[in-house]
């Protein structure tokens, strides 16, 4: 997988300026063969697929269990959709069982080619966020 420039986004508690959580986001490319069936069958035979990657996402222990992790994930999804790089999926690396459970809870599916790597199609994210499915995804769906 090819990872490109990464940006770090931080959630800060109002009043204290304490860091409550953060995530990193970068553009990435994933081999078509590694995608979950649900995404793969709708695409043409490109060898590398554009994606957005969450490298790390974490919530300070004092702020856990208050939906901040979900909020950071939604923010990352919105940024991925707005990035202009036409990502087909949001992918994340889960190094622990906890992280796998967290992403699984949010609809991510395991990618076969890289252990610990999970993905969710951008079209699913758009629906979850109440946003329009990007036109390049609609085109891919029509081509299938
Ligand atoms: C995983 C982590 C980001 C969750 O953050 P959080 O703010 O406590 O999570 P939220 O309160 O937003 O939880 C949202 C949902 O995810 C679920 N969830 C959270 N942690 C979970 C876990 N360890 N296992 C399964 N589900 C989990 C919650 O039950 C909740 O589901 P619900 O909406 O049905 O109630 C946080 O525990 C953390 O930073 N852990 C250490 C770092 C890490 O593992 N990062 C992830 C990969 S890099």
What is the CATH superfamily?
Answer: Gcn5-related N-acetyltransferase (GNAT)
Read across the widest sheet, the strand sequence of neighbours is 1-2-3-4-6-5
The kinds of small molecule bound in this structure are: coenzyme A
N to C succession of SSEs: EEHEHEHEEHH
Average per-residue pLDDT, rounded, comes to 83
> What is the number of beta strands?
6
CATH fold group: Aminopeptidase
Tally of alpha and pi helices: 5
Question: In the CATH classification, which architecture applies?
Answer: 3-Layer(aba) Sandwich
Core attributes:
5 helices; alpha+beta; disordered C terminus; 144 residues; Aminopeptidase
Map the helices and strands:
Elements: E1 2-12, E2 19-31, H1 37-40, E3 48-59, H2 68-82, E4 89-93, H3 97-105, E5 109-110, E6 117-121, H4 122-129, H5 135-143
Parallel strand pairs: 3-4
Antiparallel strand pairs: 1-2, 2-3, 4-6, 5-6
Helix pairs in contact: 2-4
The structure holds coenzyme A (COA).
Residues 56-59, 64-70, 94, 96, 98-99, 101-102, 105 line the site of coenzyme A (COA).
Structure description:
This protein is α+β, with helices and mostly antiparallel strands and 144 residues long. It has a single domain (2-143), classed as 3-Layer(aba) Sandwich (Aminopeptidase). The protein is built from 5 helices and 6 strands, in the order E-E-H-E-H-E-H-E-E-H-H. Helix 2 crosses helix 4. The longest helix has 15 residues, at 68-82. Residues 140-144 have low confidence and may be disordered. Coenzyme A is lined by residues 56-59, 64-70, 94, 96, 98-99, 101-102, 105.
């Amino acid at each position: 997988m090819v990872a490109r420039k990464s940006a770090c986004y931080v959630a800060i508690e109002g009043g204290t300026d304490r860091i409550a959580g953060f995530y990193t986001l970068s553009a990435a490319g994933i081999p078509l063969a590694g995608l979950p069936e649900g995404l793969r069958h709708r695409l043409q035979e490109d060898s590398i697929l554009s994606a957005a990657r969450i490298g790390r996402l974490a919530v300070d222990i004092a702020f856990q269990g208050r939906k901040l992790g979900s909020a950071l994930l939604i923010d990352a999804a919105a940024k991925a959709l707005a990035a202009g790089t036409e990502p087909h999926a949001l992918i994340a690396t889960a190094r622990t069982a906890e992280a796998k459970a967290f992403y699984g809870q949010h609809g991510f599916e395991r990618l076969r080619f890289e252990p610990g790597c999970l993905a969710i199609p951008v079209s699913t994210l758009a629906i979850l966020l109440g946003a329009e499915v990007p036109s390049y995804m609609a085109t891919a769906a029509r081509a299938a």
